[in-house]
Amino acid sequence: MSSSPKKIANHKIKITPYGGLGEIGMNCMLIETESTAILIDCGLMFSELDHFGVEFVIPNFTHMLTKKSKIKAIFATHGHEDHIGALSFALKAGIRAPIYASQFTTLMIRERLKETGMHETVPLNVMNPGGHVDIGDMRIMAASVNHSIIDAFALFIDTPLGKIIHTGDFKMDASPHFGDIMDQNVFKKAGDEGVLLLMSDSTNVEREEHGHQDVDIAERFEALFKKAEGLILISMFSSNVGRMANIFTMAEKMGKKIALTGRSMEQNVRLAHERGVISVNSNLFIPIDNLRQYDRKKVIVMSTGCQGEPRSALNRIAHAEHAHVKLDQGDLVILSSSEIPGNEVAISKLVNELFKCGADVLYDAIEDVHTSGHATRPELKKMIEMVKPKFFLPIHGEYRHLVHHATLAEECGVKSENICVVQNGEMIELGPDDIQIVEEITELRVLVAGREGEEVTKTLLKDRRKLAETGVVFCLMTREKDSGKILSKPEIIARGLVNESMESWLIDEALKVVQEQIQRYKKDLKQGVINKDFAEEIRVELRRFFDRNIGKKPTVIPVIMDV
């Protein structure tokens, strides 16, 4: 076995966050030595602009591509979309390097890459806890941590300058449903030997109390299941297969059937079975389209859509639009998830619709039906105290989270000058005795529509916003190609301008404006002049008309068909 990288005193390490610092989601970070670079995570963020056709936000790979020959490996800390969801986009952009991850994470990455035909582009390598890989002048070891998904890793990175620890998303759970309890001795040992830099998850730094353990949630579920009088509907993150397996075990014990609805739910159950996490009697499951054939008191429906996604199975159920699931009085709905920032309004609307169905709805704000996968302040404090880093960089959180975590590190004995709070795009340079921001990268994100990655540019988004705010008007007519003679009466089609009661009058008046322009055009025609600016004059006059009458200037598109 080769030895760890030899320390070089004058070495400098560059760390560039492309996402995940100053926001929740889109985690992506590049770590560079003099000769080698590795990418840690490459995630996406679900967009708040879905009403403009923007489904995802992904990192902008333009700056990263300038270093593509230096990038020798990609490491995924776990399988959540905000950590692996943009990998196919990175590969398409030209970032080609072997991917290293845990067993379950590689299965999830494989499925994502298959969707875009990129699964054979680069090697997928499974890492086991305690295992390591040498990448150039770095050695990377995986350490198992607890999270709301199985097979999550922290990364211990030995560099020529010293050891860097990247915690990934983690919590300290004494009773995980699957996998080992996080081995704190690995972190303590590293701390005793010396850690140059700790980069630690900041998401839950504002929470003072210890988070619930998995066993607490399991016990609560069992009590709720026993009291339920009707159908039980549970919605949760489809990646939380540990909790799913727990529910399956309880259902089998109570003689209940499981019905799954939602593509990602079905897929992850299949992957968890392949991983060996779920091994239950196949008779436990029933097809969702056979639901009505069973006593609803004996069925647990597990659904995607806990974040209020408009096209999800749960949203269709809440609006009585699901083909097979209809809620009724006495049914129990459990939303076993936390709110992702930005989804609060959608979730609130979803909960209200579920209550309208007559069901009893339980969610995190009123009932202990979920535990976060992120360490709270006491756990974060313990991590810093175990590792005893010389330098500290808070990661994974909104800006206030990073600041709070930096304050906590200082309380734990890290010198203030050795703590660096950075946002996406701020490249830091780490030396043996200093840490500082040396460069700022702009244009950090790309808006995309769908998994195929069609970019929604700033210009396109601006146009869509304008159409949504001011509406659109089409003015249609035909004319004879050679003579220029107008052959048909003009027709106006308007969308998004006014309510139906006013629309008829508005269009009639707009047609009068167009007719005036046509009369002027005909006069020019009689004099042998074809007005080449005719369409533009119609556009300008109609915009003026609408501005006078309704106070806004819609997008006006004259369509003159020459025949």
Describe this structure in words.
This protein is of the alpha/beta class. It contains 15 helices and 28 strands. The strands form 6 sheets. It has an 8-stranded mixed β-sheet with strand order 9-8-7-4-3-1-22-23. Strands 10-11-12-13-14-20 form a 6-stranded mixed β-sheet. Strand 24 (445-449) and strand 25 (454-455) form a beta hairpin.
Give the helix level as a range of percent: 25-40%
Helix tally? 15
Number of strands: 28
Q: What about the largest sheet?
A: 8 strands, mixed
The radius of gyration is 29 Å
Q: Could you give the distance between the termini?
A: 79 Å
Cα shape: globular
| Order of neighbouring strands in the sheet with most strands | 9-8-7-4-3-1-22-23
Runs in which pLDDT lies below 50 for 5 or more consecutive residues are none
Mean pLDDT: 90
Strand content: 15-25%
Please identify the structural class as seen in this structure: alpha/beta
What are the key terms here?
563 residues, 15 helices, 28 strands, alpha/beta
Lay out the secondary structure:
Blueprint: E1 13-19, E2 21-22, E3 28-32, E4 37-42, E5 45-46, E6 56-59, H1 62-65, E7 71-75, H2 81-84, H3 87-93, E8 99-101, H4 103-115, E9 124-126, E10 132-135, E11 138-145, E12 152-159, E13 162-166, H5 184-193, E14 197-201, H6 214-227, E15 232-236, H7 241-254, E16 257-261, H8 263-275, E17 299-303, H9 313-318, E18 332-336, H10 344-356, E19 360-363, H11 377-387, E20 391-395, E21 397-398, H12 399-411, E22 426-430, E23 435-440, E24 445-449, E25 454-455, H13 458-470, E26 472-479, E27 491-495, H14 500-526, H15 534-550, E28 555-562
Parallel strand pairs: 2-21, 4-7, 7-8, 8-9, 13-14, 14-20, 15-17, 15-18, 16-17, 18-19, 26-28
Antiparallel strand pairs: 1-3, 1-22, 3-4, 5-6, 6-24, 10-11, 11-12, 12-13, 22-23, 24-25, 26-27
Helix pairs in contact: 4-8, 5-11, 6-7, 14-15
